[in-house]
Amino acid sequence: MVEFVTQAETYGYCVGDKDSATITISKTDPYSGDRCGFSEMMMTLAHEMVHAKQFLRGELKSEPNWFWKGRAARNYKYINQPWEREAFRMERELFWACFPFSAPFQN
Q: Is 73 exposed, middle or buried (0-12, 13-18, 19+ CB in 10 A)?
């Protein structure tokens, strides 16, 4: 399931397990309060879809603790979390595959 909310604490997030995943995307920048553009929301959606895949395939588990591919995942800085590294690596490819007509997205 994908839901768009007026404002969230982050640009987007995904929660799930092997049976289902829910993606939440913020329509508002959590830091500035400005409205997010279409491309920004879709890039966030692409990133969170990678996490949905990770949950549904059992690669990522968050309950009761974080596990990545069957191993406990503790003490990672956000940018070094292997599930985030994969999501950042795949988000642009997925975005451009789905939205080839979009203006270039600036990060």
A: middle
